[in-house]
Amino acid sequence: MKRILYTFVIIVMTFHLFANAETILDQMEMVYELKYDAGYGNTIGGDVFFGQRYAVQMCDDFRTTSTGYVVTEVQVGNANFFGTHPTDVRISIFAEEEGQPSEDPIFTARASELGLQVANEDFVEDIFGIYGVISVVSGLNVCLEPERAYFLDVQVYSGPDDWSYTLYDDDQLHEAETFFRDGPSDEGAGGYGWTDWRAGGEVGAGVGDSAYRIEATSGICCTGGERIAKARCRASNNGNKLTVRLAGGFPGDTFTVDVSSGESKSGTLDAKGKGRVRFKRQPSGEGTASATWSCGASAEAAYTCL
Prior knowledge:
This protein folds into two domains: 22-217, no CATH class; 227-305, Immunoglobulins (Immunoglobulin-like, Sandwich). It has three helices and 23 strands. It has helices at 29-32, 47-50, 200-203; strands at 22-26, 38-41, 43-45, 54-63, 70-80, 89-97, 100-101, 107-110, 118-125, 130-143, 149-159, 164-169, 179-182, 198-199, 209-210, 212-217, 227-236, 239-247, 254-259, 264-268, 275-282, 285-293, 298-305. Strands 1, 2, 5, 9, 10, 12, 15 and 16 form an eight-stranded antiparallel beta sheet that branches. Strands 3, 4, 6, 7, 8, 11, 13 and 14 form an eight-stranded mixed beta sheet that branches.
């Protein structure tokens, strides 16, 4: 998985634009305008080509905006040996922690697991006979927090008879570098020789950009962790007071809480995905608080008023 240097002539130059989508990262100009200078292993495959399957990762930083933080499409530009079109792609997103990717991804899935197809476009370099493929996965629905830094890794499954190198431009000044490491051992052997994230400048790749593109839209998604954290009723001078606290939601999502007395209150989750409502003068006895979030999640919790 050593560095390779080639010059490519681009045959296909197609941009994928979707209504209401915002491009929050676009480094594909190194493919379209020949601005890259290297390629690094960032794939799963090579069984026959190298004698065993390898899995290595290469992730680059990006930042969501106030209007684009639900990822809907990713692209990656790779050079390979035989022009094999990947039929699957693993998309992994890591949180930014002290300037580098988190150890574990906050989201990772194969396109096939999500029921999505991989669209491929060819580009060919005639002198060395090296091929390239731009792989696109659309129809994603990955919720991230607005205006926050993350890292993206898009690993194509090259198949048993080929291998891919993600194009890289090491002539960039970037606040956060591209990071490299061996992938999970259950997906293949390591190629770099280390399992912790290491910056390009540290391993000789140089500070640079990877050939990635991300589109996103605004929206609210369920996190899967929406819950009623507490439903507590306490006696007061003005009768029983019921407090219902919500947690685990997506910041900015709206919610409604209904209680057994027939009352209902709504609100908006704060920056930590939490919310709170209070109901005064609740009747004595057992009751149920039912919460619904606008993303579609729901939860219930029992309470008792004296």
